[in-house]
């Protein structure tokens, strides 16, 4: 991700899963200062804004009781911390009874392409976000989804390929549950920990292993054949590019 793309996608509906010790900061600048920690391959997807916020403040307003939960839980999850946070719909409402808005979902899908990632993990807060997004992919994009459920932690998930992007989509409980739904908060913590632990072997390591195979194959070809100077340079650049990506993934 470039700084230009960061500036373009970080708007009043979007932020990143990093929180400072003090909530009273300029979040756009805070995210810029921590640019190296941002992970555009991980997305936290909410339903809609409940009120007006400044750029970068969505999911970061301390008066929302669920925000402090997100900060405490996600900050310690190394594979999820730094993920992109946004809403599926542009409506500003405190009601969850929002009709499906196909234009907004199309805009979100366009943003997935804009991120330029080969694989993206999407964590949907609540059933409506998850179901609306899945229904849109099936109806308008002819995207075949493969569902897998984990009943022991009440987690829903599906995977699909959309416009050459591999998507891994999860439904977790919303972070603002309270009252008779308070038990879902503990379940949410378990769901996020489960996704964090699954992400490394299934999402990062598979990709790293394939890149490793490609790089080693290039080295073997150089040892078996006499290559032109231009070919040697091309193969060397492939290996160096892979090493840089591997370091960034481990970081």
Distance between the termini: 15 Å
CATH topology of the largest domain: Uracil-DNA Glycosylase, subunit E
- CA-based gyration radius: 20 Å
Compressed to H and E, one letter per element, the order equals HEHEHEHEHEEEHH
Widest β-sheet, arrangement of strands: 1-3-2-4-7-6-5
The tally of beta strands, per DSSP, is 7
Instruction: Quickly name the level 1 CATH class of the largest domain.
Output: Alpha Beta
Number of domains: 2
CATH architecture of the largest domain: 3-Layer(aba) Sandwich
Uncertain spans, ≥5 residues at pLDDT below 50?
A: 204-223, 225-229
Measured as a percent range, the helix fraction is 40-55%
The gross shape turns out to be globular
Description:
The protein has two domains: 3-205, Uracil-DNA Glycosylase, subunit E (3-Layer(aba) Sandwich), CATH 3.40.470; 210-250. Helix content is 46%, strand content 16%. It is built from seven helices and seven strands. It has helices spanning 3-9, 27-33, 65-74, 102-115, 127-140, 183-224, 229-250; strands spanning 15-16, 39-46, 83-87, 119-125, 146-147, 156-162, 165-172. The chain has a seven-stranded mixed beta sheet with strand order 1-3-2-4-7-6-5, with helices on both faces. β5 and β6 form a beta hairpin. α6 (183-224) runs antiparallel to α7 (229-250). 25% of the residues are buried.
């Amino acid at each position: 991700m470039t700084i230009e793309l960061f500036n373009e996608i970080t708007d009043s509906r979007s932020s990143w899963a990093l929180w400072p010790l003090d909530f009273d900061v300029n979040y756009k600048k805070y995210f810029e200062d921590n640019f190296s920690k941002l992970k555009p391959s991980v997305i936290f997807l909410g339903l809609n804004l409940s009120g007006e916020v400044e750029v970068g403040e969505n999911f970061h307003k301390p008066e929302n009781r669920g925000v402090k939960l997100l900060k405490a839980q996600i900050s310690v999850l190394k594979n999820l911390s730094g993920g992109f946070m946004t809403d599926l719909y542009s409506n500003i409402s405190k009601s969850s009874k929002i009709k499906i808005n196909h234009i907004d979902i199309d805009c979100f899908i366009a943003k997935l392409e804009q991120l330029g990632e080969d694989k993206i993990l999407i964590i949907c807060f609540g059933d409506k976000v998850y179901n609306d997004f899945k229904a849109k992919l099936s109806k308008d994009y002819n995207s075949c989804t493969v569902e897998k459920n984990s009943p022991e932690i009440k987690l829903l998930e599906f995977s699909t390929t959309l416009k050459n992007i591999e998507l891994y989509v999860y439904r977790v409980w919303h972070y603002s549950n309270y009252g008779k739904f308070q038990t879902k908060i503990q379940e949410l913590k378990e769901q996020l920990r489960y996704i964090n632990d699954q992400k490394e072997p299934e999402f990062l390591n598979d990709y790293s292993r394939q890149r490793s195979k490609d790089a080693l194959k290039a080295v073997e070809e150089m040892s078996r054949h006499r290559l032109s100077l231009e070919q040697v340079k091309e193969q060397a650049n492939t290996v160096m590019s892979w090493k840089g990506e591997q370091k960034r993934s481990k970081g």
